[in-house]
Design brief:
Length: 120
Amino acid sequence: MSHDPESTEVKVSELPPIPSKRYFTIGEVSTLCVVKPHVLRYWEQEFAQLKPVTRRGNRRYYQQHDIKLIRKIRGLLYEEGFTISGARHRLGKKGQGVSAKADISEVRRELETLLKAISK
């Protein structure tokens, strides 16, 4: 399966901060993670850890931990060059697979965004 070259150009460290809300639609997650909705649906089939909440009409609602996991999967596949199988194996070794380093980078980005907002 080939990936969209546009989506692979953005590094995980350059992704926008995750807003502090409880649920996100597939469209919002697609924007936050720079991954197309059909790719997100495919990853749900390939990665057992990725299980968005489904509500009325089978609509998917993702939570913060899902977005962090999607960003980790994206980094493994697009930046580190893992195959789906390799990424699945790597995530299986680390539980949810969201590394402390990625969490720290994300917190730092969010803090920098907040600092810019209050400095205006």
